[in-house]
Amino acid sequence: MGPDAIEDRPSGITISVGRQRYRVLVAEGLLKQLGPRMGQHFSSRTCAIVTDSNVAPLFAGRARQSLISASLKPTLITIPPGEKSKTLKQAGAICEQMNAAGLDRQSFVIGLGGGVIGDISGFVAAIYHRGIHHVQIPTTLLAMVDSSIGGKNGVNTDHGKNLLGTIHHPILVMDDINVLKTLPGREFNQGFAEVIKHAIIADARMFDVLQTWKASETHVLQSLVRRNVELKFKIVGKDERDQTGERALLNFGHTVGHAIERAGDYRKFLHGEALSLGIVAACAISTKRAGLPARQRDTIVSLLQRFELPTCLPKNFPRNKIISAVKFDKKFERGKIRFVVTPGIGSAHLSHEVTMRDIREAVKQL
Ligand SMILES: NC(=O)c1ccc[n+]([C@@H]2O[C@H](COP(=O)([O-])OP(=O)(O)OC[C@H]3O[C@@H](n4cnc5c(N)ncnc54)[C@H](O)[C@@H]3O)[C@@H](O)[C@H]2O)c1
Ligand SMILES: [Zn+2]
Questions:
Q1: Rounded (to 5) percent helix, strand, coil in the chain
Q2: CA-CA 20 to 30 A from 227: which of 27, 130, 257, 355?
Q3: b/e string for 289-309 if b means 16 or more Cβ within 10 A?
Q4: How many CB atoms lie within 10 A of CB 332?
């Protein structure tokens, strides 16, 4: 089931998925409204706030107080930050803490944090007592514009990332723009790689806005977040379960991007940074295979640089590892790969014409 309708009002965006309707609120200062809003949504008093130890000292106190003031009974569950926490073991430990705190079938889980917290709290919500309600409060730009949307959750295994998970849509998403103020610069900028990706594949006007946006313009940032939520929903809505190829357009830049992340042992580059490099490679391939004008390719590279995102690899980076990772990741059919290309800023399609040689050349140029 994909979202059947999106309704955009000043107070938020309403998404309909099958029989479920839920809202994505985008505004400044939403965190302090948490208690009253949860009071409106739920009859149950008990809930868990799942967060990480970077985010907890910044926002968990405020979230907890707001819930307590609205007569709710929150249990705060804090896990170590970062990807290493996205495990089945950690999900089990969270469930046990919820059991110990007396959460039941009517209780709900609030994920307060970046994509790691969104993914693991969503997974816990999906399996606890066979599924309870989930509320997302994303605190990174990447989580607001990408991971909190679409209902996918999950944990990693020794064999790879996100290999266990479900699709379990949240009942409410609250994007409080103010929480982004404490985000380290590198984390903030990596979120823009996904925003730029959305602009390239679906919104030329947003691409123009990004070229002149200044960090002080909070109201523009707010409308950018809203626009990205809408864009991702529109694409996911056409293909919730990755079946028609529509959702695959969101993978623009990711074939090479993921390979770069892997080749750097997930330490050298953040996801958005690797994506930035993957976008540059995808543009080179698009120039060759989809007629992307060279001037537009250069404009895209300049926009990535405007957000301090990398557009070339360090000289000594093991490029051969990138190629092995691409081969490992993707299935080739008679030497060709399903690859997302852009013929011009604002549109994208799948190409079956891209060869391993094209990818090798593009990586060499990085
Ligand atoms: N479910 C999906 O559809 C989907 C899509 C894209 C990515 N993801 C997942 O998202 C995860 C990455 O998300 P992320 O980049 O948000 O990483 P993250 O959750 O690790 O957050 C990045 C860092 O920022 C810190 N942080 C978060 N908010 C902060 C704030 N407001 N101020 C200061 N520090 C803050 C965190 O503690 C962490 O150290 C990956 O696990 C990825 O697989 C999921
Ligand atoms: Zn991504």
A1: 50, 20, 30
A2: 257
A3: bbebeeebbeebbebbeebeb
A4: 12
For residue 150, pLDDT over 60 is answered with yes
Q: How far is the CA of 72 from the centre of ligand 2 (A)?
A: 35
For a ligand 1 pocket test, name from 59, 85, 136, 140 the mutation site with the most ligand atoms within 8 angstroms of its C-beta. Answer: 140
| Cα 91 to Cα 73, 102, 117, 164, distances in angstroms | 21, 17, 10, 11
pLDDT band at 328, cuts 50/70/90?
confident
CA–centroid distance, residue 254 to ligand 2 (Å)? 7
- For residue 13, the surrounding DSSP H or E stretch is strand 12-17
Residue 359 binned pLDDT confidence (cut-offs 50, 70, 90): very high
Q: What is the pLDDT of residue 2?
A: 45
For the segment 67-87, the average pLDDT, to the nearest whole number, is 96
Tens digit of each residue's pLDDT (9 = 90 or more) over 208-260: 999 999 988 889 999 999 999 999 988 887 766 667 777 889 999 999 999 99
**b/e burial code for range 141-167 (CB count within 10 A of at least 16 → b):** bbbbbbbbbbbbbbbbeeeeeeeebeb
Say which ligand is closest to the CA of 193.
2
For the CA of 31, the nearest ligand: 1
Ligand 1 contacts CB of residue 183 (under 6 A): yes
344 DSSP 8-state letter: E
Measured from the Cα of 58, ligand 1's closest atom is 32
Q: Whose CA is nearest to atom 28 of ligand 1?
A: 139
**Listed residue (136, 164, 201, 187) closest to 341, CA to CA:** 201
> And the tokens for 194?
């996904």
- How far is the centre of ligand 1, averaged over its atoms, from the C-alpha of 358 (Å)? 32
- Dihedral sign (CA 230, 180, 281, 325): negative
> From the CA of 144, how far away is ligand 2's center (Å)?
12
Which ligand lies nearest the alpha carbon of 194? 2
pLDDT, one tens digit per residue, over 263-319 is: 998 899 999 999 999 999 999 999 999 999 999 999 999 999 999 999 999 999 999
